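Example record for the data management plan.
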Amino acid sequence: MKITKAREVSTIERYLLFSVGILITAIGTYFFKFPNNFSTGGVSGLSLILGRLIPSEVFTPSVLMFIINTALLGVGFIFIGKEFAFSTVYCSMLLSVLMTVLERLFPIAAPLTTQPFLELCFAVLLPAFGSAILFHLGGSSGGTDIIAMILRKYTSMNIGSALMVADSLITVSALVFFGVEAGLYSILGLLMKSTLVDYVGDSFRMKKCFQIITDHPKPIVDFIVGTLHRSATLEDVHGAYTNSQKTMIVTVMNRSQAIALRRHVHTIDPHAFMIITASTEIVGKGFLKN
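Corresponding structural encoding:
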């Protein structure tokens, strides 16, 4: 029973974070991307371009967006799995609903400001941050994000590079269909987006690696295991300068735990020598799977 409840809480938290990521993406897309015709890839950009090529009352950009997303969801279901497909359906539907709500509540006929570069920053930053949240949780908002996830799964590409490959052709097409200025801004936006997604995604995965050389290992290890609920590796080391025996504690933890450990070590042993490094790739029990 306890395990079931823990899983329910974890699932609820996961989908709440999905919702936050989608809301951030919707705000950036609706208020900053669409009014400026910034086509930084994605199904939204492809739909705008196809809407110009196929002017029709039936196949509007929103209808084309739905058709393309549905096809890509089928591809994602085949290559990535059922769990990914379900979460992506949820995110795609929520994004469509939020875009419709924003359109009804805040109709926009022109850009909010007269500063296109400023609006480009928000058009890239907000959706990139939202996408990074989704990727970190193993989901996406659909569209070309699915292609990027497939490329990441079956190649050595990171998610930013995979997004650039998936969106580059769509972005370059903006030069033809929306003019040189919008096209160049779109290309710049794509470069910014791919970099930001990797940066934000890495910050979510960031862990602190400690190498603590001390004369008082026991109270430090007791704090790591008993209070922080992490593990550690101990190694006997020999100081070259002092010619004395000490113990080196090696452990890895998240940022908040790292702050608590650093303070505790300073309290226990003010003369302890600590090497603290940041890492986004920790493979093993309690972290990433092999």
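Summary line stored alongside the record: Confidence is low (pLDDT under 50) at residues 1-9.
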